[in-house]
Amino acid sequence: MQETTSRSTQAFDPLDMNNYRIEKLPKRRKSSIERMLALLGPPLALIAFVYFGFFADLPFLSSFDPLEIVSESAKKALDKNGMEAFVHSNHLMLAIFIAAIILWITEAIPNYLTSLIVIISLVLTGVLTEKVAYAQLGHPVMWLNIMSFVLASMLVKTGVAKRFALWFILRFGKSASSIFFSFILINIVLSAFISATTAKAAILLPIFMVISSIYGARSGDGKNNFGRSIVLQNLLNINLGAGAFVTGSGANLLAAALIGGAIGGSVFFTDWMMAMFPIVVGLMLIGYVLAMKVYFPLKKEERLPLIEGGMERLKQELHKMGKPSAQEIKSVIIFLLILGFWATDRVHGISATAVAFVGAIVALLPRIGIVQWNDVDIPWHLMLFSAGAYTLGSGLDATDLASISVNAFFDGLGIANQTPFWVLYLLLTGVMIFSALIFQSKTMRTMIFVPIAIGVAGRFGYEIISLALPVAFMIEHVYVLPFNSKPAALLYETDMYTYPDSFKFGFTMMVISWLLIILAGETWFRILGITPNGVFGLF
Protein backbone atom coordinates (compact mmCIF):
# COMPACT_ATOMS: atom_id res chain seq x y z
CA MET A 1 0.00 0.00 0.00
CA GLN A 2 2.78 2.40 0.95
CA GLU A 3 4.67 1.59 -2.26
CA THR A 4 1.55 2.22 -4.34
CA THR A 5 0.99 5.57 -2.63
CA SER A 6 4.60 6.53 -3.22
CA ARG A 7 4.33 5.69 -6.92
CA SER A 8 1.13 7.68 -7.34
CA THR A 9 2.73 10.64 -5.60
CA GLN A 10 5.78 10.44 -7.82
CA ALA A 11 3.60 10.09 -10.90
CA PHE A 12 2.58 13.75 -10.77
CA ASP A 13 5.30 15.94 -12.25
CA PRO A 14 4.56 19.61 -11.44
CA LEU A 15 6.74 20.70 -14.39
CA ASP A 16 4.95 18.56 -16.97
CA MET A 17 2.74 20.88 -19.03
CA ASN A 18 0.47 17.98 -19.98
CA ASN A 19 -0.74 17.83 -16.36
CA TYR A 20 -2.45 21.20 -16.83
CA ARG A 21 -4.43 20.50 -19.99
CA ILE A 22 -8.08 21.51 -19.64
CA GLU A 23 -9.39 17.95 -19.76
CA LYS A 24 -7.13 16.98 -16.83
CA LEU A 25 -8.31 19.72 -14.48
CA PRO A 26 -10.74 18.50 -11.81
CA LYS A 27 -14.35 19.53 -12.34
CA ARG A 28 -15.63 21.92 -9.70
CA ARG A 29 -18.74 20.70 -7.89
CA LYS A 30 -21.65 23.10 -7.62
CA SER A 31 -22.22 24.72 -4.26
CA SER A 32 -25.42 24.08 -2.32
CA ILE A 33 -26.73 27.52 -3.38
CA GLU A 34 -26.01 26.78 -7.05
CA ARG A 35 -27.77 23.41 -6.79
CA MET A 36 -30.77 25.05 -5.14
CA LEU A 37 -30.96 27.70 -7.87
CA ALA A 38 -30.79 25.01 -10.53
CA LEU A 39 -33.80 23.26 -8.96
CA LEU A 40 -35.80 26.48 -8.65
CA GLY A 41 -34.96 27.75 -12.13
CA PRO A 42 -37.52 25.84 -14.29
CA PRO A 43 -40.59 26.43 -12.09
CA LEU A 44 -39.67 30.11 -11.59
CA ALA A 45 -39.17 30.57 -15.35
CA LEU A 46 -42.52 28.91 -16.11
CA ILE A 47 -44.37 31.00 -13.52
CA ALA A 48 -42.73 34.20 -14.83
CA PHE A 49 -43.66 33.35 -18.42
CA VAL A 50 -47.31 32.62 -17.62
CA TYR A 51 -47.71 35.64 -15.32
CA PHE A 52 -46.05 38.30 -17.49
CA GLY A 53 -47.39 36.84 -20.72
CA PHE A 54 -51.04 36.43 -19.81
CA PHE A 55 -51.96 37.92 -16.44
CA ALA A 56 -49.76 40.91 -15.56
CA ASP A 57 -51.30 44.33 -16.07
CA LEU A 58 -48.39 46.53 -17.14
CA PRO A 59 -49.71 49.93 -18.26
CA PHE A 60 -46.42 51.06 -19.77
CA LEU A 61 -46.75 48.34 -22.44
CA SER A 62 -50.02 49.79 -23.70
CA SER A 63 -49.91 53.49 -22.82
CA PHE A 64 -46.93 54.52 -24.96
CA ASP A 65 -47.10 56.97 -27.83
CA PRO A 66 -46.71 55.07 -31.14
CA LEU A 67 -44.72 58.01 -32.51
CA GLU A 68 -42.02 57.33 -29.88
CA ILE A 69 -41.22 53.90 -31.32
CA VAL A 70 -37.60 53.85 -32.48
CA SER A 71 -37.04 50.65 -34.46
CA GLU A 72 -38.36 50.30 -37.99
CA SER A 73 -39.33 46.67 -37.41
CA ALA A 74 -41.54 47.70 -34.46
CA LYS A 75 -43.26 50.35 -36.60
CA LYS A 76 -43.94 47.78 -39.32
CA ALA A 77 -45.30 45.29 -36.77
CA LEU A 78 -47.59 47.95 -35.32
CA ASP A 79 -48.90 48.91 -38.77
CA LYS A 80 -49.43 45.27 -39.73
CA ASN A 81 -51.01 43.89 -36.57
CA GLY A 82 -52.71 46.87 -34.99
CA MET A 83 -52.25 48.22 -31.47
CA GLU A 84 -53.91 45.36 -29.57
CA ALA A 85 -51.86 42.60 -31.20
CA PHE A 86 -48.68 44.66 -30.89
CA VAL A 87 -49.24 45.21 -27.15
CA HIS A 88 -49.90 41.48 -26.66
CA SER A 89 -46.61 40.72 -28.46
CA ASN A 90 -44.86 43.08 -26.06
CA HIS A 91 -46.28 41.17 -23.08
CA LEU A 92 -45.15 37.87 -24.58
CA MET A 93 -41.73 39.29 -25.43
CA LEU A 94 -41.28 40.47 -21.85
CA ALA A 95 -42.42 37.08 -20.54
CA ILE A 96 -39.95 35.17 -22.73
CA PHE A 97 -37.17 37.62 -21.88
CA ILE A 98 -37.65 37.26 -18.09
CA ALA A 99 -38.01 33.46 -18.28
CA ALA A 100 -34.80 33.23 -20.35
CA ILE A 101 -32.89 35.42 -17.89
CA ILE A 102 -33.99 33.17 -15.01
CA LEU A 103 -32.89 30.00 -16.82
CA TRP A 104 -29.58 31.53 -17.89
CA ILE A 105 -28.72 32.83 -14.41
CA THR A 106 -29.74 29.69 -12.51
CA GLU A 107 -28.16 27.35 -15.10
CA ALA A 108 -31.07 25.00 -14.48
CA ILE A 109 -30.54 23.57 -17.95
CA PRO A 110 -27.60 24.02 -20.36
CA ASN A 111 -27.41 27.53 -21.81
CA TYR A 112 -27.63 26.31 -25.39
CA LEU A 113 -30.87 24.47 -24.55
CA THR A 114 -32.32 27.66 -23.06
CA SER A 115 -31.46 29.41 -26.33
CA LEU A 116 -33.26 26.77 -28.37
CA ILE A 117 -36.32 27.17 -26.14
CA VAL A 118 -36.15 30.96 -26.59
CA ILE A 119 -36.04 30.65 -30.38
CA ILE A 120 -39.03 28.32 -30.68
CA SER A 121 -40.98 30.28 -28.03
CA LEU A 122 -40.63 33.50 -30.04
CA VAL A 123 -41.92 31.64 -33.09
CA LEU A 124 -44.86 29.86 -31.42
CA THR A 125 -46.02 33.03 -29.67
CA GLY A 126 -45.90 34.96 -32.94
CA VAL A 127 -43.43 37.57 -31.70
CA LEU A 128 -41.14 36.68 -34.61
CA THR A 129 -41.71 34.86 -37.87
CA GLU A 130 -39.87 31.62 -38.47
CA LYS A 131 -37.77 33.29 -41.16
CA VAL A 132 -36.53 36.00 -38.80
CA ALA A 133 -36.05 33.74 -35.76
CA TYR A 134 -34.15 30.95 -37.51
CA ALA A 135 -32.10 33.36 -39.60
CA GLN A 136 -30.15 34.49 -36.52
CA LEU A 137 -27.94 31.42 -36.85
CA GLY A 138 -26.67 33.19 -39.96
CA HIS A 139 -26.01 36.49 -38.18
CA PRO A 140 -22.71 38.04 -39.40
CA VAL A 141 -21.31 37.84 -35.88
CA MET A 142 -22.11 34.11 -35.80
CA TRP A 143 -20.09 33.63 -38.96
CA LEU A 144 -17.23 35.69 -37.57
CA ASN A 145 -17.22 33.46 -34.48
CA ILE A 146 -17.11 30.32 -36.62
CA MET A 147 -14.31 31.66 -38.81
CA SER A 148 -12.41 32.87 -35.72
CA PHE A 149 -12.51 29.36 -34.25
CA VAL A 150 -11.13 28.02 -37.53
CA LEU A 151 -8.26 30.49 -37.33
CA ALA A 152 -7.68 29.86 -33.61
CA SER A 153 -7.54 26.12 -34.31
CA MET A 154 -4.87 26.89 -36.88
CA LEU A 155 -2.76 28.58 -34.23
CA VAL A 156 -3.28 25.72 -31.78
CA LYS A 157 -2.57 22.94 -34.28
CA THR A 158 0.61 24.52 -35.62
CA GLY A 159 1.75 25.49 -32.11
CA VAL A 160 2.44 29.11 -33.03
CA ALA A 161 0.73 30.56 -29.96
CA LYS A 162 2.46 28.13 -27.59
CA ARG A 163 5.85 28.71 -29.24
CA PHE A 164 5.46 32.48 -28.97
CA ALA A 165 4.46 32.32 -25.29
CA LEU A 166 7.30 29.94 -24.36
CA TRP A 167 9.88 31.94 -26.32
CA PHE A 168 8.77 35.22 -24.79
CA ILE A 169 8.87 33.87 -21.24
CA LEU A 170 12.31 32.31 -21.72
CA ARG A 171 13.66 35.41 -23.45
CA PHE A 172 12.35 38.06 -21.08
CA GLY A 173 11.20 36.23 -17.94
CA LYS A 174 14.48 36.48 -16.05
CA SER A 175 12.87 37.34 -12.70
CA ALA A 176 9.51 37.15 -10.98
CA SER A 177 8.61 40.71 -11.99
CA SER A 178 9.67 40.30 -15.61
CA ILE A 179 7.60 37.11 -15.85
CA PHE A 180 4.46 39.05 -14.92
CA PHE A 181 5.26 41.80 -17.44
CA SER A 182 5.88 39.12 -20.08
CA PHE A 183 2.40 37.72 -19.61
CA ILE A 184 0.91 41.20 -19.98
CA LEU A 185 2.57 41.56 -23.38
CA ILE A 186 1.69 37.99 -24.39
CA ASN A 187 -1.97 38.61 -23.58
CA ILE A 188 -2.01 41.84 -25.60
CA VAL A 189 -0.52 40.12 -28.66
CA LEU A 190 -2.78 37.06 -28.46
CA SER A 191 -5.85 39.26 -27.99
CA ALA A 192 -5.21 40.90 -31.35
CA PHE A 193 -5.25 37.52 -33.10
CA ILE A 194 -7.61 35.29 -31.11
CA SER A 195 -11.26 36.26 -30.67
CA ALA A 196 -12.07 33.58 -28.07
CA THR A 197 -11.03 34.32 -24.48
CA THR A 198 -11.43 30.63 -23.60
CA ALA A 199 -8.93 29.69 -26.32
CA LYS A 200 -6.40 32.15 -24.90
CA ALA A 201 -6.90 30.70 -21.42
CA ALA A 202 -6.39 27.16 -22.73
CA ILE A 203 -3.14 28.16 -24.46
CA LEU A 204 -1.64 30.05 -21.50
CA LEU A 205 -2.83 27.93 -18.58
CA PRO A 206 -0.24 25.10 -18.85
CA ILE A 207 2.58 27.63 -19.19
CA PHE A 208 1.78 29.79 -16.18
CA MET A 209 0.94 26.70 -14.09
CA VAL A 210 4.41 25.26 -14.72
CA ILE A 211 5.96 28.63 -13.85
CA SER A 212 3.85 28.70 -10.66
CA SER A 213 5.29 25.32 -9.72
CA ILE A 214 8.82 26.55 -10.39
CA TYR A 215 8.19 29.36 -7.88
CA GLY A 216 6.81 27.02 -5.24
CA ALA A 217 3.06 27.41 -5.78
CA ARG A 218 0.82 24.35 -5.50
CA SER A 219 -2.91 23.90 -5.71
CA GLY A 220 -4.93 23.27 -2.57
CA ASP A 221 -2.95 23.71 0.63
CA GLY A 222 0.19 24.72 -1.28
CA LYS A 223 -1.15 28.10 -2.41
CA ASN A 224 1.22 31.05 -2.27
CA ASN A 225 1.07 34.65 -3.45
CA PHE A 226 3.06 33.98 -6.62
CA GLY A 227 0.49 31.41 -7.71
CA ARG A 228 -2.46 33.59 -6.72
CA SER A 229 -1.02 36.57 -8.55
CA ILE A 230 0.00 34.90 -11.79
CA VAL A 231 -3.34 33.12 -12.25
CA LEU A 232 -5.53 36.09 -11.28
CA GLN A 233 -3.48 38.55 -13.32
CA ASN A 234 -3.76 36.29 -16.35
CA LEU A 235 -7.51 35.98 -15.80
CA LEU A 236 -7.74 39.77 -15.67
CA ASN A 237 -5.55 40.30 -18.72
CA ILE A 238 -7.20 37.60 -20.85
CA ASN A 239 -10.48 39.47 -20.49
CA LEU A 240 -9.09 43.02 -20.57
CA GLY A 241 -7.12 42.17 -23.70
CA ALA A 242 -10.34 41.19 -25.46
CA GLY A 243 -11.72 44.64 -24.62
CA ALA A 244 -8.96 46.36 -26.58
CA PHE A 245 -10.30 45.21 -29.96
CA VAL A 246 -13.77 45.02 -31.46
CA THR A 247 -12.78 41.55 -32.70
CA GLY A 248 -11.72 40.54 -29.17
CA SER A 249 -14.95 38.63 -28.59
CA GLY A 250 -18.28 37.90 -30.20
CA ALA A 251 -19.99 40.11 -27.60
CA ASN A 252 -17.91 43.12 -28.73
CA LEU A 253 -18.88 42.50 -32.33
CA LEU A 254 -22.52 42.10 -31.40
CA ALA A 255 -22.42 45.44 -29.55
CA ALA A 256 -20.78 47.07 -32.57
CA ALA A 257 -23.47 45.62 -34.83
CA LEU A 258 -26.28 46.87 -32.57
CA ILE A 259 -24.77 50.36 -32.40
CA GLY A 260 -23.99 50.41 -36.12
CA GLY A 261 -27.59 49.47 -36.92
CA ALA A 262 -28.89 52.24 -34.65
CA ILE A 263 -26.69 54.95 -36.18
CA GLY A 264 -26.94 53.71 -39.76
CA GLY A 265 -23.18 53.30 -39.99
CA SER A 266 -20.32 51.21 -38.61
CA VAL A 267 -18.09 50.98 -35.56
CA PHE A 268 -14.71 50.30 -37.15
CA PHE A 269 -11.85 48.19 -35.76
CA THR A 270 -9.60 51.26 -35.66
CA ASP A 271 -12.23 53.34 -33.85
CA TRP A 272 -12.59 50.79 -31.06
CA MET A 273 -8.83 50.16 -30.78
CA MET A 274 -8.01 53.88 -30.71
CA ALA A 275 -10.42 54.39 -27.83
CA MET A 276 -9.70 51.30 -25.74
CA PHE A 277 -6.15 50.08 -26.38
CA PRO A 278 -4.41 52.69 -24.16
CA ILE A 279 -7.03 52.23 -21.44
CA VAL A 280 -6.62 48.44 -21.48
CA VAL A 281 -2.83 48.67 -21.25
CA GLY A 282 -3.17 51.13 -18.37
CA LEU A 283 -5.57 48.79 -16.52
CA MET A 284 -3.22 45.84 -16.98
CA LEU A 285 -0.37 47.82 -15.41
CA ILE A 286 -2.64 48.95 -12.57
CA GLY A 287 -3.63 45.30 -12.03
CA TYR A 288 0.06 44.36 -11.81
CA VAL A 289 0.77 47.01 -9.17
CA LEU A 290 -2.38 46.18 -7.20
CA ALA A 291 -1.58 42.46 -7.14
CA MET A 292 2.14 42.74 -6.43
CA LYS A 293 2.08 45.61 -3.95
CA VAL A 294 -1.30 45.43 -2.21
CA TYR A 295 -3.11 42.10 -2.29
CA PHE A 296 -0.48 39.46 -3.11
CA PRO A 297 2.98 40.90 -2.32
CA LEU A 298 5.71 38.34 -2.85
CA LYS A 299 7.87 37.21 0.03
CA LYS A 300 11.60 37.13 -0.55
CA GLU A 301 11.61 33.36 -1.06
CA GLU A 302 8.71 33.61 -3.55
CA ARG A 303 10.77 35.81 -5.83
CA LEU A 304 13.27 33.01 -6.49
CA PRO A 305 12.73 29.69 -8.31
CA LEU A 306 12.32 26.89 -5.76
CA ILE A 307 12.67 23.99 -8.21
CA GLU A 308 16.17 23.75 -9.58
CA GLY A 309 16.23 23.54 -13.33
CA GLY A 310 12.60 24.57 -13.60
CA MET A 311 13.07 27.04 -16.44
CA GLU A 312 15.17 24.41 -18.17
CA ARG A 313 12.02 22.32 -18.48
CA LEU A 314 10.38 25.14 -20.39
CA LYS A 315 13.44 25.28 -22.65
CA GLN A 316 13.06 21.55 -23.25
CA GLU A 317 9.38 22.06 -24.08
CA LEU A 318 10.34 24.72 -26.62
CA HIS A 319 13.20 22.59 -27.96
CA LYS A 320 10.83 19.65 -28.53
CA MET A 321 8.84 21.84 -30.90
CA GLY A 322 11.86 22.07 -33.18
CA LYS A 323 12.40 24.85 -35.69
CA PRO A 324 9.35 26.78 -36.93
CA SER A 325 7.69 24.72 -39.64
CA ALA A 326 6.39 25.98 -42.96
CA GLN A 327 2.86 25.58 -41.61
CA GLU A 328 3.66 27.82 -38.64
CA ILE A 329 5.13 30.47 -40.91
CA LYS A 330 2.08 30.32 -43.18
CA SER A 331 -0.28 30.68 -40.22
CA VAL A 332 1.64 33.74 -38.99
CA ILE A 333 1.47 35.33 -42.46
CA ILE A 334 -2.29 34.67 -42.69
CA PHE A 335 -2.90 36.21 -39.28
CA LEU A 336 -0.76 39.25 -39.97
CA LEU A 337 -2.68 39.86 -43.20
CA ILE A 338 -5.99 39.45 -41.36
CA LEU A 339 -4.90 41.86 -38.64
CA GLY A 340 -3.74 44.31 -41.29
CA PHE A 341 -7.13 44.25 -43.03
CA TRP A 342 -8.95 44.55 -39.70
CA ALA A 343 -6.84 47.55 -38.73
CA THR A 344 -7.51 49.33 -42.03
CA ASP A 345 -11.26 48.61 -42.29
CA ARG A 346 -12.05 52.33 -42.27
CA VAL A 347 -10.03 52.66 -45.48
CA HIS A 348 -11.30 49.70 -47.52
CA GLY A 349 -14.69 49.15 -45.84
CA ILE A 350 -14.45 45.34 -45.82
CA SER A 351 -16.08 43.95 -42.67
CA ALA A 352 -14.21 41.96 -40.03
CA THR A 353 -16.43 38.97 -40.84
CA ALA A 354 -15.54 39.05 -44.55
CA VAL A 355 -11.83 39.30 -43.75
CA ALA A 356 -12.01 36.35 -41.33
CA PHE A 357 -14.02 34.43 -43.95
CA VAL A 358 -11.25 34.75 -46.54
CA GLY A 359 -8.57 33.87 -43.97
CA ALA A 360 -10.43 30.74 -42.87
CA ILE A 361 -10.95 29.63 -46.49
CA VAL A 362 -7.23 29.96 -47.19
CA ALA A 363 -6.42 28.03 -43.99
CA LEU A 364 -8.78 25.20 -45.03
CA LEU A 365 -7.72 24.93 -48.70
CA PRO A 366 -6.50 21.45 -49.71
CA ARG A 367 -2.74 21.06 -50.13
CA ILE A 368 -1.89 24.74 -49.61
CA GLY A 369 -3.95 25.20 -46.44
CA ILE A 370 -2.98 24.56 -42.84
CA VAL A 371 -5.87 22.77 -41.11
CA GLN A 372 -8.51 20.27 -42.10
CA TRP A 373 -12.11 20.57 -41.02
CA ASN A 374 -11.74 17.73 -38.52
CA ASP A 375 -8.93 19.71 -36.83
CA VAL A 376 -11.23 22.66 -36.19
CA ASP A 377 -12.64 22.86 -32.68
CA ILE A 378 -15.90 24.81 -32.93
CA PRO A 379 -17.94 24.78 -29.67
CA TRP A 380 -21.36 24.47 -31.26
CA HIS A 381 -23.08 24.69 -27.89
CA LEU A 382 -21.72 28.25 -27.65
CA MET A 383 -22.88 28.96 -31.20
CA LEU A 384 -26.42 27.81 -30.37
CA PHE A 385 -26.39 29.86 -27.18
CA SER A 386 -25.33 32.93 -29.17
CA ALA A 387 -28.03 32.29 -31.79
CA GLY A 388 -30.64 32.29 -29.01
CA ALA A 389 -29.31 35.55 -27.62
CA TYR A 390 -29.38 37.19 -31.06
CA THR A 391 -32.94 35.93 -31.63
CA LEU A 392 -33.93 37.42 -28.29
CA GLY A 393 -32.41 40.68 -29.50
CA SER A 394 -34.47 40.50 -32.69
CA GLY A 395 -37.57 40.09 -30.54
CA LEU A 396 -36.63 43.16 -28.52
CA ASP A 397 -36.14 45.07 -31.76
CA ALA A 398 -39.43 43.85 -33.27
CA THR A 399 -41.39 44.99 -30.21
CA ASP A 400 -39.14 47.95 -29.29
CA LEU A 401 -39.49 46.74 -25.71
CA ALA A 402 -36.21 48.32 -24.60
CA SER A 403 -37.16 51.86 -25.70
CA ILE A 404 -40.73 51.57 -24.39
CA SER A 405 -39.43 50.35 -21.01
CA VAL A 406 -36.78 53.06 -20.81
CA ASN A 407 -39.33 55.79 -21.50
CA ALA A 408 -41.75 54.33 -18.95
CA PHE A 409 -38.98 54.10 -16.35
CA PHE A 410 -37.91 57.73 -16.66
CA ASP A 411 -41.51 58.93 -16.89
CA GLY A 412 -42.28 57.04 -13.67
CA LEU A 413 -39.38 58.73 -11.93
CA GLY A 414 -40.54 62.11 -13.20
CA ILE A 415 -37.15 62.76 -14.77
CA ALA A 416 -37.25 65.50 -17.37
CA ASN A 417 -35.65 65.24 -20.78
CA GLN A 418 -33.05 67.81 -19.73
CA THR A 419 -31.16 65.29 -17.56
CA PRO A 420 -27.43 66.10 -17.77
CA PHE A 421 -25.41 63.83 -20.04
CA TRP A 422 -22.93 62.85 -17.35
CA VAL A 423 -25.65 61.62 -14.99
CA LEU A 424 -26.79 59.20 -17.69
CA TYR A 425 -23.17 58.30 -18.54
CA LEU A 426 -22.38 57.40 -14.91
CA LEU A 427 -25.59 55.43 -14.51
CA LEU A 428 -25.36 53.39 -17.72
CA THR A 429 -21.66 52.53 -17.54
CA GLY A 430 -21.98 51.68 -13.83
CA VAL A 431 -24.95 49.37 -14.37
CA MET A 432 -23.19 47.68 -17.29
CA ILE A 433 -19.91 46.96 -15.53
CA PHE A 434 -21.35 45.84 -12.20
CA SER A 435 -24.00 43.67 -13.88
CA ALA A 436 -21.11 41.29 -14.58
CA LEU A 437 -21.29 40.28 -10.91
CA ILE A 438 -24.72 38.75 -11.56
CA PHE A 439 -24.94 37.69 -15.19
CA GLN A 440 -22.98 34.78 -16.57
CA SER A 441 -22.98 35.69 -20.24
CA LYS A 442 -21.31 38.66 -21.93
CA THR A 443 -23.62 38.18 -24.89
CA MET A 444 -26.68 38.38 -22.65
CA ARG A 445 -25.46 41.57 -20.96
CA THR A 446 -24.78 43.05 -24.37
CA MET A 447 -28.28 42.18 -25.58
CA ILE A 448 -29.83 43.80 -22.51
CA PHE A 449 -27.80 46.92 -21.81
CA VAL A 450 -26.58 48.16 -25.20
CA PRO A 451 -30.17 48.52 -26.53
CA ILE A 452 -31.08 50.27 -23.25
CA ALA A 453 -28.22 52.72 -23.77
CA ILE A 454 -29.40 53.30 -27.34
CA GLY A 455 -32.94 53.91 -26.07
CA VAL A 456 -31.78 56.32 -23.34
CA ALA A 457 -29.70 58.29 -25.85
CA GLY A 458 -32.73 58.56 -28.12
CA ARG A 459 -35.05 59.69 -25.34
CA PHE A 460 -32.76 62.45 -24.10
CA GLY A 461 -31.58 63.59 -27.51
CA TYR A 462 -27.91 62.64 -27.19
CA GLU A 463 -25.76 60.99 -29.85
CA ILE A 464 -26.19 57.21 -29.66
CA ILE A 465 -22.41 56.69 -29.83
CA SER A 466 -21.86 58.91 -26.77
CA LEU A 467 -23.70 56.53 -24.42
CA ALA A 468 -23.91 53.18 -26.20
CA LEU A 469 -20.21 52.83 -27.05
CA PRO A 470 -18.87 53.48 -23.51
CA VAL A 471 -21.43 50.93 -22.28
CA ALA A 472 -20.09 48.45 -24.86
CA PHE A 473 -16.55 49.11 -23.63
CA MET A 474 -17.60 47.58 -20.28
CA ILE A 475 -18.44 44.16 -21.73
CA GLU A 476 -15.21 42.33 -20.92
CA HIS A 477 -15.06 42.99 -17.17
CA VAL A 478 -15.92 39.41 -16.23
CA TYR A 479 -13.12 38.34 -13.90
CA VAL A 480 -14.42 38.78 -10.33
CA LEU A 481 -16.20 35.48 -9.59
CA PRO A 482 -15.84 32.01 -11.16
CA PHE A 483 -19.27 32.04 -12.81
CA ASN A 484 -18.74 35.43 -14.47
CA SER A 485 -17.09 33.97 -17.59
CA LYS A 486 -15.72 30.74 -19.02
CA PRO A 487 -12.04 31.71 -18.45
CA ALA A 488 -12.94 32.56 -14.83
CA ALA A 489 -14.59 29.17 -14.37
CA LEU A 490 -11.65 27.43 -16.07
CA LEU A 491 -8.91 29.10 -14.01
CA TYR A 492 -10.80 28.58 -10.76
CA GLU A 493 -10.42 24.84 -11.35
CA THR A 494 -6.66 25.22 -10.86
CA ASP A 495 -7.34 25.70 -7.12
CA MET A 496 -4.55 28.28 -6.93
CA TYR A 497 -6.74 30.94 -5.30
CA THR A 498 -9.93 31.27 -3.27
CA TYR A 499 -13.23 33.10 -3.74
CA PRO A 500 -12.10 35.93 -1.42
CA ASP A 501 -8.81 36.26 -3.35
CA SER A 502 -10.67 36.59 -6.62
CA PHE A 503 -13.31 38.94 -5.27
CA LYS A 504 -11.06 41.45 -3.51
CA PHE A 505 -8.68 41.73 -6.46
CA GLY A 506 -11.32 41.58 -9.18
CA PHE A 507 -13.85 43.90 -7.56
CA THR A 508 -11.17 46.52 -6.88
CA MET A 509 -10.13 46.34 -10.55
CA MET A 510 -13.78 46.63 -11.56
CA VAL A 511 -14.20 49.84 -9.56
CA ILE A 512 -10.94 51.25 -10.92
CA SER A 513 -12.03 50.38 -14.47
CA TRP A 514 -15.32 52.23 -14.01
CA LEU A 515 -13.54 55.29 -12.63
CA LEU A 516 -11.09 55.20 -15.55
CA ILE A 517 -13.95 55.04 -18.08
CA ILE A 518 -15.52 58.05 -16.34
CA LEU A 519 -12.21 59.91 -16.57
CA ALA A 520 -11.83 58.87 -20.22
CA GLY A 521 -15.31 60.18 -20.94
CA GLU A 522 -14.21 63.63 -19.80
CA THR A 523 -10.86 63.51 -21.58
CA TRP A 524 -9.77 60.89 -24.11
CA PHE A 525 -13.26 59.99 -25.39
CA ARG A 526 -14.06 63.68 -25.72
CA ILE A 527 -10.93 64.20 -27.84
CA LEU A 528 -11.94 61.27 -30.07
CA GLY A 529 -15.44 62.67 -30.50
CA ILE A 530 -17.23 59.85 -28.65
CA THR A 531 -18.58 62.01 -25.84
CA PRO A 532 -19.89 65.57 -26.45
CA ASN A 533 -17.54 68.40 -27.46
CA GLY A 534 -15.15 66.07 -29.27
CA VAL A 535 -12.16 67.25 -31.29
CA PHE A 536 -11.23 64.52 -33.80
CA GLY A 537 -14.80 63.54 -34.64
CA LEU A 538 -13.96 59.95 -35.60
CA PHE A 539 -17.57 58.93 -34.99
Describe this structure in words.
Helices cover 69% and strands 0% of the residues. It has 539 residues and is mainly alpha-helical. It is globular, with a radius of gyration of 24 Å. The N and C termini lie far apart (71 Å). The protein is built from 24 helices and no strands. The N terminus is likely disordered. It has a domain of 104 residues.
Radius of gyration: 24 Å
How many strands?
0
Given the structure, what is the number of helices? 24
Helix content: 55-70%
Question: What is the approximate shape?
Answer: globular
Distance between the termini: 71 Å
Query: Unreliable stretches, pLDDT < 50, 5 or more residues?
Result: 1-10
Order of helices and strands: HHHHHHHHHHHHHHHHHHHHHHHH
Instruction: Give the biggest beta sheet.
Output: none
Q: Short summary of the structure?
A:
The protein is mainly α and 539 residues long. 69% of the residues lie in helices and 0% in strands. The chain has helices spanning 2-11, 32-55, 72-106, 111-124, 130-134, 140-158, 160-172, 176-193, 197-214, 225-242, 250-263, 269-295, 310-320, 326-343, 345-348, 352-364, 380-399, 401-413, 421-434, 442-460, 464-472, 486-492, 499-522, 524-528.
Search tags:
539 residues, mainly alpha, disordered N terminus
